[in-house]
């Protein structure tokens, strides 16, 4: 007769191995999918925001560069009878001969151009325009119909109808011409 040793194991049923059920696997996949979509939306919004900031910075630089060019000219025509706009012999496209502030009135270019008329690299889809107007000396927000000794210059940079950059300056008759 065989006796059992006290240390021998008694025969038992094998332990159940627990794993994921199909429902748990589907729920985990759904949760991970939602988290992934949220993360990708955040990254996409960050990239769009960075692009917008870069484009606005470039537009502001374009506006300020043209404003510096305009402010480097005289208040009114130094050689001929002063007219508000371009005088005879001054091209409506090339700014090379423009010598006073109001020569720029109503000018625009898309894409923005250098003074010699070449397109500024990397500015496709942008438009740069200039408005020059006489303003009230007491309140430069009020435009006037005749010369007051003060001209307000506004350079605007747009993408389509959206203004993405602007520079505004006031040029006075008393400003010392170079």
Q: What would you say this structure looks like, in words?
A:
Strands 1, 2, 3, 4 and 5 form a 5-stranded antiparallel β-sheet that branches. With 178 residues, this protein is α+β, with helices and mostly antiparallel strands. It has one helix at residues 22-71; strands at residues 108-109, 126-136, 139-143, 150-159, 162-172. It is rod-shaped. It has one domain (41-172). Helices cover 28% and strands 22% of the residues. It is built from 1 helix and 5 strands.
What would a concise description of this structure say?
The protein is an alpha+beta fold and 178 residues long.
Task: Set down the secondary structure blueprint.
Elements lengths: L21 H50 L36 E2 L16 E11 L2 E5 L6 E10 L2 E11 L6
Antiparallel strand pairs: 1-2, 2-3, 2-4, 4-5
Order of helices and strands: HEEEEE
Largest sheet descriptor: 5 strands, antiparallel
Residues in β-strands, percent: 15-25%
Give the terminus-to-terminus CA distance: 125 Å
Total strands: the figure is: 5
The backbone outline, from C-alpha atoms, is rod-shaped
Number of domains: 1
Low confidence ranges: none
Structural class: alpha+beta
Number of helical elements: 1
Rg (C-alpha, Å): 35 Å
Percent of residues in helical segments? 25-40%
